[in-house]
Specification:
This protein has helices spanning 16-28, 43-47, 52-65, 78-89, 106-109, 124-140; strands at 3-6, 68-72, 93-99, 116-121. It is α/β, with parallel strands linked by helices and 141 residues long. It is globular and about 40 Å long. It has one domain: Rossmann fold. The protein contains 6 helices and 4 strands; from the N terminus they run βαααβαβαβα. Strands 1-2-3-4 form a 4-stranded parallel sheet, with helices on both faces.
Length: 141
């Protein structure tokens, strides 16, 4: 499956280890993740050399081409929110997951759009179970 992974960049990187865990898990299962570089610690250096218009066009094309979006939303991010809304407008399945105790926008947690799944996780093992259940549900449809 082609999975668009979304996470905070400029909003903060304190969940970077979680991002890496998700991406490594997806890649190990044979999924294509065009945004895998977002989980790397050097991402900010990689992304700052690309102009904003190029990032926007690149990411929009990746969302259009993906089978689903997985967004880690524990750290607030305008970009992640935009990507989620755009994916939903294209009728993509979206998993928005967040760490227990994180304060997440009610625009995410209250979103009942078709295709939107919002899940809270206690630890990384539970997070990966949530990811696997989300992907299994998509495959069944």
């Amino acid at each position: 499956m082609n999975i668009y992974f979304s996470c905070s960049l400029t909003g903060g990187r304190k969940d970077e280890a979680v991002y890496a865990e998700i991406v490594e898990h997806l890649l190990a299962q044979g999924h294509k993740v065009p945004t895998a570089h977002l989980a790397r610690s050097e991402v900010m250096n990689l992304e700052k050399i690309v102009d904003p218009a190029s990032v926007y066009l690149r990411d929009i094309k990746w969302i259009q081409a993906c089978d689903a979006v997985i967004a880690e939303v524990s750290t607030p991010s305008h970009g992640v929110g935009y990507e989620i809304a755009y994916a939903l407008s294209l009728n993509k399945s979206v998993l928005s997951c967040y760490r227990q105790g994180a304060i997440v926008s009610k625009m995410i947690t209250g979103n009942s759009s078709p295709g939107m799944v919002v899940r809270c996780y206690r630890n990384q093992d539970q997070l990966l179970e949530i990811v696997d259940a989300f992907l299994a549900d998509i495959k069944e449809r």
